[in-house]
Fold:
Amino acid sequence: MDFLAQAIIPYVLIYKYWAIFIVTLLASSTLPIPAGTILIATSAFGSQGYFNMKYLLLVVIIANIVGDNLLYFIAKLYGKKVLSKIHFINKIFRSDNYISIEKKIVKHPELIIILSRFEVISTLFVNLMSGMSKVNYKKFLKLEIIGTLGNVLFYSFIGYSFGNSWEAVNKLIGDFTILFFLSIALCISLFGKRIIRRINKNLD
Amino acid sequence: MYNINMKLSQFFSHKNIKRIYLFILIILCLLSLMLFIISMSYFTKTGQLDFEYKINGKHTKSYTPIKPESIKPWMTFNYINVVFKLEPTYLKNILNINDKRYPDIRIDNYSRRLNKDQTSTIKEIEKAITNQYQNK
Structure:
């Protein structure tokens, strides 16, 4: 178990649903906390009878949606204003690459928003980008809810199914995540040019 | 010397760098796939990985209950009571716990407060649970 999760889980055991709500909210809005690990652990505790699974799922889903929306609105209202004061970031905002990425996110946010829910840093980054590039709110909300449901059901199913073995499973998921991102990097480096050409064609 | 420099710069040309990068990525992918398979087989062999599922509250597969040896310092007494299905006051009475925060106190915090070694506290808890199971 990683250091952060090990520090947080005892508080989850003591303060139960309140702690789960706060940790999930922070993970989806401000801090890169390992929310997946914590959800696997709490679902395993649920299978052991420590938590009620229905309440647990409800709390996690609500906290995720609230956190995502919070960051989206903060980024929409103050994101560019605040971040453009930093010279280095302002330069990035003005670059052609950033502008083209922004255009792509606004036009086709579906896959990015849904897939990003499965990894905490990408969730934070995509929420921030969606808010700053003013992705249509209804679209964002719909995709974000679909992604959150997928993410929560995936991790809680694993935690609940493996119960007492959750620590071993968590280690395996860590290995699998490394493998997944490496394979994506490999695919992008092999087929990246073709993908970009296709996206550009679609945009034109 | 000039030839070596030329050869080196040719080797590290844009195309070659891309090939090297791809080669490293493929190796890393294979290594992490190996790591994944090795850890999976290790966990399965040592019995740490056990898929279990319940339908209507009943375990449908040979269910292995949590063992007293798997108690960790970060666990709270409340969690241990629930998981091992103990009476809420059982551990309090057996271990003579006077802490007001019981049962919502971590084992390591409890041991630190009493200047006790946390491994010996865990062993005491394990012993108490095993005795309780034997008496049942």
